[in-house]
## 1
Amino acid sequence: MKLRFNRWYFTLTILLFVTEVLIAAYLHDDFIRPYAGDFLVVILIYCFVRSFLQAPVVPVALAVLAFSCLVEGLQYLNMVKHLGLGHSRLANIVLGNYFTWADIIAYTLGTGFVILVEKIREARKPDR
């Protein structure tokens, strides 16, 4: 593992962040906002981590999945309320306040997508 800035992943992070903000601000449907947003958020976090950390794909992707599941578990425990942050819009957005297994599935599918795309990218690289 090395600390090294990667412009490609950072650019993807910015694009995914903008996409997530647009989804949150303008889409109020029953599919894209709740499921695609959760699918994309693990990809966003993965790209952010890879923007600064050069490390193997699978451990980073699984760490992001574990982090996402931890946050979802905190939602199950209603941690925002227990921390006295129920009034904070930012805390409710970042930590969330509603547990659902569908989010865990979306995180898992997003992580699988990351691993698949990264493995395809690695296979296409010429040998150095």
## 2
Amino acid sequence: MAGKPLISTVKYVAGTRPVFRLSEIIPYLDEPVSVDEIYRTISPELSRFGLTAKKLDGDFEISRALPTPSYILNDGERERLETFIARREMPFTLAEAIERYITRKAGKEWHDPVIIERLRRAIVAQKDDYWKPSHRRSLQYTKGYSVLGYLAYHFPVYFMQTEHLLAGLARDGLLKKSMTILDVGTGPGVVPLAIADLWSRLDDARAAVYSLERSEEHIEAFLSLRDAFVPRGGNVSVKPPIKADIREPLPPAIPEKVDLVIFSNVLNELPESSVDTQAGIVERIADRLKPDGSIVIIEPADQENATRMRTITAELEKRGLMMYAPCSFIRGMPCTAPRCWSFATAPAIRPTRLMETLARCDESYRYMNTDIKYSYAVLRRDGKRRSAYRVAPDSKFLRLSKLHLHVGNRVNVAVVKMSGELGDAKNRLFKICDGTAKTPVYAVIPSFHLTSGNEAIRTAPYGTVLEMLGVLVRYNKAHDAYNLLVNRNTSVTIPEMRDKE
């Protein structure tokens, strides 16, 4: 019997019974197959479907694998995480390690005027390349001063951005007491070093971190920073990066099953690859994911990369990697992510000493990189979502796909907040979504209309479900978008907070 129908049969039976023997599925098959042959065919896929097998009296007992318990933060851990995040500053020991590495590679002190000027030129060249059309970009960051420029300009903000995301996973209960983590396209080790730093604030959590990187220069920088920053014998083991191209099959040194896979600012650096190809890369590496594991994809917040990432995640939904966050699919249907420019924000970081030195020139703005803005998705196979909220079929809330029928009227909507502040001090603007709209929708509130009854639209975190009562529908022809105007009489509430009361 062909492998695919056999696997589908086992999956079907597992969905109806928590425990069964392989011999019990033989009556379901079109042709007789031995128990041993069934096991040989399905064994590579069992973990993927959350199943385990135990040999028993010439048969195999198949049962659903129990999920690993979540690591629940205690009060002390929460306080340490929040204190670090509020400081908005990369650890000084890591900043110093970067300075020492640049000094060693350049052959002069990092603050030497000649070295600073070379770093500036490398940063400007990288930025100019980034803003080219995607098909003309190289974005290699793999040789000489391009690596050093990356360490000086990109590394600090990406490091703090990763800390924000990891802290979010910790708050959501997606971490485990012992984890195996894979960072795909690690560069100079931003993600593994951020993991080691965040885990240092946890009392009883451990992690083994593996990574893939094809650039020898980045691997050299990674190892230098790791050895200077990650304590030996600590609760995080950061393995040496494995030299590999992420478009190729995974090397044997990568563990068979991992708890967390991270793609940080890597898919956008494959500009010649189609959405289907990039989704295929994620799907192939996701074969190593444990049934209760997570995949995190992080991309820049600019319109091209953020919208492309949403298209990739929509494609991955079709392939069984379901969105945990930030999208909530509150209408119970998948979203095709048309024109979805959505990103998260966080307070700007404090510049490093190196960054401040680079900025002591006539065009200082070119060398200060402190804003945290990024597009991200957390994907899982088990269907778990951050928010369990669903709009009831008979609810009073209008679908956003029906706004064109209600221009000029006040309506009630249930939505997800899908951006940080996009407006200004005079008019606050936020992207909102319910998964049904083909045209972008924004909530707009003049600052003088902010009240305690509607301020949740401003204060709620990115990805929060909101119920909005009494918003005025307007169509913005210039931008082909709908604006929902919030005033002092509009009620904006967070239903999941209300339901906990």
